Each structure stands twice: as C-alpha cells, then as structure tokens.
Amino acid sequence: QFLKQLGIHPDWQFVDVYGMEPELLSMVPRPVCAVLLLFPITEKYETFRTEEEERIKAKGQDVKSSVYFMKQTINNACGTIGLIHAIANNREKMNFETNSSLKKFLEDSLSMTPEERAKYLETYEAIRVTHESSAHEGQTE
C-alpha cells in the first residue's frame, strides 16, 4: 500500500521472507531486485558500526556514482529509507505511475549528496504524509 501511494506500479511489491531455507525462499515471487533486512540494534552491532564508520572516515571509501544512498536523519523511518534505497538503486527496472511523488523525489535528489538527500526528505511533504499514514496502520517499532 505504501508503494502504491508513492506511485510505484503494482508490477512490483514487497513480500516477507520467512527464512533462508530453500522451501521458504521458493515462496518468494521472482524476479527479486532487493532484499531488506530487519534486525535488532544490539551493543555488538553499534560497536561494529562505530568502528566501521571511523575506518571509512580515516581511509575513505570508493562508492560507484550509480549507487543511491541517503543518510537517515528522521527517527523511526528506517523502513522508509530502506524502501527508497531499494527502489532508487533499481529505478531502471521500476514502473512508476504518472505523477509519482517518489519518482519526482528521486529525480530531484539524484545529484545531491547523501546528507542533502536526507535534508530534502525531511521537507518532502508527499513522502512524509505517506510514511505517517502507513505508520499508523501497523507496528513501527
């Protein structure tokens, strides 16, 4: 529903993956162009993330210009950010409806830095409203 409201054609959808066993993976419709992982934030993860961030700051990181990435600056929006990343990095495969707010957001933000994209998302009314209405429909914690 969230994707439909943002103007993604119903040819594409997100589905739950219940496990990595072959019989469970066989239930996932094909083709697949992205996988979003949901996991709890633990102390071990935070330690790894902090160390990795420091390593990247010290040594730099080579990222292809074709990779779309934005920082997350909005609390409790990791799912929305993940969806945007999944769609943005597969936009050549996506079918957008006419007047898609997400397509416009991606086109507008393509030349921005990850930080600028985050700030732009903070003020992008169509996605904010859609995120808030979806958050009220189910669990967001």
Give the SSE map.
Blueprint: H1 2-6, H2 22-25, H3 43-59, H4 78-88, H5 101-109, H6 114-123, H7 125-137
What this model shows, in words?
It is found in: Cytoplasm. Preferentially binds diubiquitin; the interaction does not hydrolyze diubiquitin but, in vitro, inhibits the hydrolyzing activity on other substrates. Keywords: Cytoplasm, Hydrolase, Phosphoprotein, Protease, Thiol protease, Ubl conjugation pathway. One of its GO terms (molecular function) is cysteine-type deubiquitinase activity. Its EC number is 3.4.19.12. The chain is mostly helical. The chain has a single domain (1-51, 69-136), classed as Peptidase C12, ubiquitin carboxyl-terminal hydrolase (Ubiquitin C-terminal Hydrolase UCH-l3, 3-Layer(aba) Sandwich), CATH 3.40.532.10. Helix content is 49%, strand content 0%. The chain has seven helices and no strands. The protein has helices at residues 2-6, 22-25, 43-59, 78-88, 101-109, 114-123, 125-137. It starts with a helix and ends with a helix. The model has no long low-confidence stretch (mean pLDDT 89).
